[in-house]
């Protein structure tokens, strides 16, 4: 095998009910940057059934080419037919890099594919760059409980594969009206691949906005004292038109739902404004929010590490400062 035979940055496009997941757009943006440094192109790999309506969207968000498998066996997602298609595509098209979102689907699919094509997989990456000398991929991810960031290379195998955390990479500016070539991959899916029947999908219905989509987040930590005090954060978030988020300590204490946890084992967020109230700023928390545009920290300990990443800091009692802020904003 020669590395020269492997070309192109491929992005596995995650679609559910014919709606492309946000992380796929983020990956297309990153892939564009990597492809430029590798002097190659970005291919969006679209698997599903009746998915042609998604082509324009993929072109708009940066794909140079779309490789599609359109088959009833691919709706809804199940592991075997998807792994089979990815295996076929990698063996026949020989991409140099394949990226997946570190979502439930990506985390299920990517390891299966990596075992089949006998290559490595760096899971949960937070940074991807091209080594200027070797032109290989440098994949960075938290290691040892998030205490260090490990940079991983794949010097002996191709493709180089990574799952990437949603919310970490930035989307490119979309270009409406862009058209790109579409190629149908000649994959034949039989009964052997369709070995699971999905009987029912029960969707969680929520009227809350996902914290990864919120422009303003008011986040609470253990310093808020108790679950009831999160009402103060909700009031502030409502006045600002934002959402409430939390540190893991509050999720572990049962004060908050896991879906609003920010950090290494929670979500990565990048809002315009992140107000951290009673959060110390542990490295695992910072990993999920330090890319926010503006960070305001309220903490009664002036040495709390959160102040090192904050643009504005208020040293004091969040239980007093938060309601004061809310009432001043209401007056304004
Ligand atoms: P604490 O560290 O206890 O900090 C509370 C802060 O509140 C202190 O700074 C204190 O000075 C301040 N305070 C107290 N009272 C007040 C008051 N009245 N007003 C103002 N300030 C006050 N953590 C995450 O958040 N997200 C993750 O995804 C995550 N993943 C992890 C993964 C691993 C593998 C490990 C080992 C840990 C992870 N953690 C994560 C936990 C992390 O290490 C910290 O324990 C956690 O972030 C601490 O939460 P906290 O800041 O709310 O609490």
From TrEMBL:
Cofactor: FAD
Species this protein is from: Caproicibacterium amylolyticum
GO biological process, any: fatty acid beta-oxidation using acyl-CoA dehydrogenase
Coiled-coil ranges from the UniProt annotation: none
Domain Electron transfer flavoprotein alpha/beta-subunit N-terminal: 9-198
One MF term in the entry's GO annotations: flavin adenine dinucleotide binding
Protein name, per record: Electron transfer flavoprotein subunit alpha/FixB family protein
SMART domains on file: ETF (SM00893)
Keywords noted in UniProt: Electron transport, FAD, Flavoprotein, Transport
Family, per entry: Belongs to the ETF alpha-subunit/FixB family.
Cofactor binding note: Binds 1 FAD per dimer.
Binding site for FAD: 222, 247-248, 261-265, 278-285, 299
InterPro entries per record: DHS-like_NAD/FAD-binding_dom, ETF_a/b_N, ETF_a/FixB, ETF_alpha_N, ETF_asu_C, ETF_asu_C_CS, Rossmann-like_a/b/a_fold
